[in-house]
Fold this protein.
Amino acid sequence: MDAAVFIVSAVVVLTGAAGVLVARNPVHAALFLVQTLFGVAVLFVLQDATFLAAVQVIVYAGAVVILFLFVIMLLGVDRAEDLGIEPIAGQRSVAAIVGASMLGLLLTVLLVGVDGPTGARGANAALGGAEDNTRRLGEALFTDHVFAVELTALLLTVAVVGAVVLARRVRGPLQPMPVVTVASATGSDDASATGSDEATATGDDPAAEADDEGEAG
Amino acid sequence: MAVDLLTLAFQRPHIDWHGIAPELVLLGVGALITLVDIVFLEKARPITAALAGLGLLATAVPLLTLAADGTDRVMFDGAYVVDEFSLVMKAIFLLSAYVVVLLSTNYVAEGDYWENEYYGLLLASVMGMVMMASARDLVSIFVALELLSIPAYLMVAWRKRDLRSNEAGLKYYLMGVFASAVMLYGMSLLYGVSGSTMLDDIGTAVAAAGSSVPVVTMAIVFIVAGFAFKVSAVPFHTWAPDVYEGAPTPVTAFLAVASKAAGFVALLVLVLVAFPSASDVWEPLVWILAAASMTVGNMVALRQTNVVRLMAYSGIAQTGFMIAPLAVAGHGGGSADQALSAVVTYLAIYAAMNLGAFAVIIVLARKTGSAETTSFAGAFHYAPGLTVAMTIFLFSLAGIPPLGGWFAKFEVFRVLATAGEPWGYVLAAVGAVNSVIALYYYAALARRMWADDAPDGDHAPVPMTPSLASALGICGIVTLAFGVAPQLVARFTDVTLAALGG
């Protein structure tokens, strides 16, 4: 049974991977990628890594590929990429050499290596009895690591707040440099009143020009 | 049936509410600031800074009760520990953050930046640091590191209309993420070796594996390299000058002091709890980092014309001094405790004198609008008090008695010399030579402020604000106290790590 599932999902993974390479339409390539990722998820289930399988489906097939699709759609799918052009000279031959050597290395390790794969499961942390790893993971997260988990929530909130603040466009004047509040240097006064671009453009005051040069140099 | 299984297996973790009270208070204040912002909108702006400052002080109250109680507390199976070391470090973080809030008050308000979010992010970053001081497992350490770093990336880019600030934010972010990735790789190797994320178990596993196992060596090198980035030690320092220059100056002060201290906390805990038996791996590594940071930082600082960049390179050199005691911390017989105390003492004093120097830079920049060394010329003629304060901070950074920096360097040299190791003496000699080099550029800046004349003969007084004055006062008092009465104050930084069970 295990062997049958393995063979079927391996075929799914490999045809998906081949499809990513040969599909001429980028959207089709992304969908083939989903197929590969689903196949890998099945392999995870086969290894009793149910949590990893769920994460594989939710994060990779669900989120990452959707992002790929977003980018592909935004850039336009109608323009088929001309594969004859090499953006970096010689990259294709280098890629072929590196790929062939990796394959050779892998085969050497598999076929003639002394410490080849044994087929044994997990070196560490043998899973005992009927407890599946999703439950054990959940327990670990909400007992020993509960503090870190709760603070991860804060971390995500902070990231969202920060992203909004940095990405938001503000109408109206926003001073470029807050350092000048008293009327000491005329050049800086211009800058704080009108924004640095205009200050440089209209900076007929010699002091203002000197200031700008000082900052540039 | 599924429900039955869950209720049977789940053991509610024991939570020591007193032990995590500081974190809870800080979290509450952060939530309060956000709520006030949502409810009162623009009307809340004037009080946000005060709220953040008071919140940080309120967080210190449970710290005091915990210190008075004095027992070591261990939570979450050893993942979270409240001991002397963590309490002192939390106090340093909170005080530094309080001074940073004082420095930011006028800067952020007058710059017309987002204010509530700024203080919210600042508190979140402090939260990460406070957590880092107690974290004793890889997961907590990593979450704490990200929690303190991500708000910092954002605050560096807070001057949205300034290209240099954007560049600094992007640079800091990319380098920081890269360092995190390298460190995570090291952590995953450690987990692979030990099968546990608790530092205590890792210490046992590393001792059992022996340091000659290549994967342990690789893990240690990766982790130390990741934190070397955080504390800006050579050769992982390249981000510091650009980021310090581009970031809003109060944020620069925050990065230079609190963020660096947090990196040191993690480094100390990892090295002394998780890898004590592998000292033949990290001692040479730390030695090289220390010697290179001191030398490169000081050499490049000599040529700087911008005070913030000068402070960046001086900070790199100071990192070298701070990390130096770790290079001889692996000999047993109390050498680890001595090194720990020396580093914590240095961090406390460095926080005071460096924040003080940045406070003066911020005050003077309010008048001159520039951080070039030439614009500091002649400050004595219009701001004698500030000039005296800056001289105190600069000479303290250089290590001149009777100022705090002298005591900090003295402790470092004492640890290096009493280790009885030839390498310790060599590192002490490198440090001594570097102290002399550092004195040159610190003194050159001081001389410019005292002796030269102001550019354009502009002698208008510097606009001072109460918050900046109190920031200067706090930094000045701490710097002097550590120098004049070291025995009295150093009691607080003579700390030990709680021995974990096992």
About this structure: Strands of chain B lie at 73-75, 80-82. Residues 335-368 of chain B form the longest helix (34 residues).
